[in-house]
Design brief:
By secondary structure, the protein is α+β, with helices and mostly antiparallel strands. It is built from 9 helices and 14 strands. 31% of the residues lie in helices and 26% in strands.
Length: 355
C-alpha cells in the first residue's frame, strides 16, 4: 500500500487533499481575516491595497484644458513574497519507533503517516493565525526566524497603535469618555469603528468599570458586575461597536527537545492579554493571501502532472539515500493583507492608581 514500495511513502493524491481546509471555525482571527488563494501574490496584494484606499476626487475641467495628472498610491509589496512557511518530519524515524512499539500492520502505519501529514499542515496553519493576530495588535507582521529578519508594514498610522485605555481611579477621564474620544477620532477621519478584538481580561475590566456600570445601570448600581449582554448592547447603542471578538487561544513555539528526552512546549497567546483592537468594517477587515510554494512552482516548471487548483498548504514527501530517510514536508506561501490601515486602532490597558 505504500507508494512505489518505499516504506513511509503514501500516494501524492492523498497528500494533496490535506491542505485545503485552512479555516478554523473557533478561531476569532478567521472571523476578521478570510483566506484567498492566488497564483500571483504581489499583483493581488497591489490590487486589493489600491481598492481600499480612501477615494480620491478628480476635478471639473474646461473643455479646452488638459486633464490633471493623478498619482499612484505607493504600496509596500517588496516583502510580500517572502512569507514562506514550511516544516518537515523524519518519517522513517517515526515509523521505526512505531514498529518497535508493536505497530506492524501496513494499514496502521499508513494511517500514522497521514496523521503526521495533517499535523504538519496544522503547524503551517498555526503560523498564519499568529501572523493575522500580530496585524491586529501591532499593525504589522514581523518575521525573525530561520535567517529572516523583515517587517511587513501595512501603513497603519503610528498614533493609531499607541492608544491607551486607563481603567485606574487616577485616569484623566472616565473609561466611557476615553472610548468616545477614540471612536470620534476614527469617525472624523472617515473610518467609523464597528468592532473590537481583545481578550476576556479586557472585557472583564469593562464590566467592572464604575463609569460604564453607572452609564448602563445608574449610579446606585456602581460596584455591580455588568451582564455581558448589557455591555454589548451599550457599546452598540452608544459607540456603534456591533462586534466583540475575544481571543484567549494559545499555541506553542516550535518544539525543542528537553534534557529528559521529551519535547518542550513553549506556550504563547495569539493575542496579548492587555491589548484591545478597534476596527472599522462590517465583515472581513483583511484577507490572508496564499500563493504557490516553490515546490508547486517547481513541479509545474518540470512538467510534472499537478492539479489545476493547488491547496493552501502543499504536503509532499521525498527520499534521501545516505542515510536512508523519507521526509514528509508541509509548506505554504502566506501573507495577511489589511484592507484599510486607517481603520485599525490599538490600545493598551493601563491602571493609574488614585491619589
Amino acid at each position: 500500500m505504500f507508494e512505489n514500495n518505499i516504506f513511509g511513502m503514501v500516494a501524492p493524491d492523498e497528500l494533496l487533499d490535506i491542505g485545503y481546509d485552512v479555516t478554523r471555525p473557533n478561531d476569532p482571527a478567521d472571523q476578521v481575516f478570510d483566506d484567498t488563494k492566488t497564483d500571483n501574490l504581489v499583483a493581488h496584494w497591489e490590487t486589493m491595497a489600491a481598492e481600499y484606499q480612501i477615494p480620491v476626487m478628480a476635478q471639473f475641467h474646461a473643455f479646452d484644458v488638459e486633464a490633471q495628472k493623478t498619482l499612484r498610491m505607493p504600496i509596500d509589496s517588496h516583502n510580500v513574497e517572502k512569507g514562506l512557511i514550511k516544516v518537515k518530519i523524519d518519517q522513517s524515524e517515526r515509523l521505526r519507533a512505531l514498529i518497535n512499539r508493536g505497530v506492524t500492520t501496513e494499514n496502521r502505519l499508513r494511517e500514522k503517516v497521514l496523521n503526521d501529514a495533517f499535523n504538519l499542515a496544522e503547524e503551517v496553519f498555526t503560523r498564519t493565525k499568529v501572523a493575522k493576530n500580530e496585524v491586529l495588535y501591532a499593525g504589522q507582521v514581523t518575521i525573525k526566524e530561520n535567517g529572516l529578519n523583515l517587517t511587513v508594514d501595512y501603513g497603519v498610522p503610528q498614533a493609531n497603535l499607541q492608544k491607551t485605555l486607563d481603567f485606574g481611579e487616577g485616569a484623566s477621564a472616565p473609561l466611557d469618555e476615553q472610548i468616545l474620544a477614540l471612536t470620534e477620532e476614527a469617525s472624523s477621519k472617515g473610518s467609523p469603528l464597528t468592532g473590537i478584538y481583545t481578550s476576556s481580561a479586557i472585557i472583564s475590566k469593562m464590566r467592572k468599570d464604575p463609569s460604564i456600570q453607572k452609564a448602563i445601570n445608574g449610579a446606585l448600581m456602581v460596584g455591580q458586575l455588568i451582564r455581558r449582554a448589557d455591555l454589548e448592547n451599550y457599546l452598540n447603542d452608544e459607540f456603534g461597536i456591533k462586534r466583540i471578538l475575544i481571543n484567549d487561544l494559545h499555541y506553542s513555539l516550535p518544539l525543542t527537545m528537553g534534557s529528559n528526552g521529551r519535547p518542550v512546549v513553549t506556550d504563547k497567546r495569539y493575542y496579548p492579554q492587555d491589548k484591545i483592537s478597534f476596527f472599522a468594517g462590517d465583515n472581513f477587515i483583511g484577507t490572508g493571501l496564499w500563493g504557490d510554494t516553490p515546490s508547486v512552482t517547481a513541479q509545474r516548471f518540470t512538467g510534472a502532472e499537478t492539479s489545476e487548483v493547488s491547496p493552501y498548504v502543499f504536503v509532499n514527501q521525498y527520499c534521501e539515500n545516505d542515510p536512508d530517510i523519507v521526509w514528509t514536508k508541509a509548506e505554504g506561501l502566506f501573507m495577511p493583507v489589511l484592507y484599510n490601515p486607517n481603520g485599525l486602532y490599538v490600545a493598551t490597558a493601563q491602571n493609574t492608581p488614585g491619589a
